[in-house]
């Protein structure tokens, strides 16, 4: 069928034509925003899920909802090698400046801006457009300890008070939270804890790989109570069916029940795979109905495309020794895997493999599950490895 009208959206962070199966998460986020605005205790959230399950898309959607509720929204992605101070500085500055335009909030916003000057100096932040001339004078003692666990709560506090005075709120969205250092994560948690204790309208929604729950708990034990941790996983068959069928119908085409089942079955409801297979099936089907044959005959092409893109880019980030490690995992079947079994499959002493394991975890390719097993952060990754090493 006409590729120009293909509704599907395979791609990192691409908004799907139908955001299926996430109503509860979105509703809870909307409630948190509304409560924060009213000055009621509002729960921050940490969305946890494997690669390609739709975390980034959800963050964007939550950002849109928050904006429509009247909150100021900042969205950042934690890269592997920068500090939280660098990441948040421009966002805090933007929010403080915008709040300083409201008369009632001006005084607090100005204090936030002067705190930000101190903060930029102690954390050696280089930021284009740092126009010192027009900023308020720095205020001694505000956000200038150089310890993120002290300075971030100071700044959040000033911004929170400014937002409160303006009748607004601030939602901070951080993607890829697993890349924050433990110190930075602790600073973020302390700051958010302070906001909730002081009843200030600042809330946070983060997203990351499943290990983030443990990282947050290790950084501050009360993190468990501070956040809710919704799981962003594969879609159940009803949601997966809707995610595929509705966009097709909306384009004036249709899909047979068998065709729909093939897609749900073969992708196991994983959102990224689902978009990819549905997209190929659309392009390959003569139409106007997509049937099971169209799906089946599009499958090889889909797998090839995933292998060359989605899967391959992750493997390419590993060193030779790390590749050996993941090959051995896949040779054991599907996960989760016991570390000692992997070592045995490699013919190695587990003690000698600690650094390799740590570095693959750091790269976000594998994670340690709740029960101390290891598993891939990419769904169906073991299948991919086995296809590479027949
Ligand atoms: N609820 C959903 N229904 C249908 N498709 C979805 C849904 N959520 C996400 N998708 C699709 O899944 C793909 C992956 O989404 P996204 O990039 O948000 O995942 P992610 O969890 O952030 O992945 P990563 O961990 O690799 O960053 C996109 O093509 C998106 O359109
Ligand atoms: Mg993402």
Shape: globular
Order of strands across the widest beta sheet?
2-3-4-1-5
Say what the CATH topology of the largest domain is.
Rossmann fold
C-alpha termini separation: 34 Å
CATH superfamily of the largest domain: P-loop containing nucleotide triphosphate hydrolases
The CATH class name of the largest domain reads Alpha Beta
CATH architectural type of the largest domain: 3-Layer(aba) Sandwich
* Number of structural domains: 3
Low-confidence parts, pLDDT < 50 over ≥5 residues? none
Count of individual helical segments = 16
Integer-rounded radius of gyration: 23 Å
Mean pLDDT: 93
List of distinct ligands in this structure: adenosine-5'-triphosphate, magnesium ion
Short descriptors:
binds adenosine-5'-triphosphate, Rossmann fold, Arc Repressor Mutant, subunit A, 5-stranded parallel sheet, 390 residues, alpha/beta, Helicase, Ruva Protein, domain 3, binds magnesium ion, 16 helices, two-stranded parallel sheet, 3 domains
What do you see in this structure?
Helices cover 54% and strands 10% of the residues. The strands form three sheets. The protein has a five-stranded parallel beta sheet with strand order 2-3-4-1-5, sandwiched between helices. The protein has 16 helices and nine strands. By secondary structure, it is an alpha/beta fold. The model has no long low-confidence stretch (mean pLDDT 93). It has three domains: 23-228, P-loop containing nucleotide triphosphate hydrolases (Rossmann fold, 3-Layer(aba) Sandwich); 237-314, Helicase, Ruva Protein, domain 3; 318-388, Winged helix-like DNA-binding domain superfamily/Winged helix DNA-binding domain (Arc Repressor Mutant, subunit A), CATH 1.10.10.10. It binds adenosine-5'-triphosphate (ATP) and magnesium ion. Residues 9-14, 16, 19-22, 49, 51-57, 243, 271-272, 274-275 line the site of adenosine-5'-triphosphate. Residues 12-13, 55-56, 175 line the site of magnesium ion.
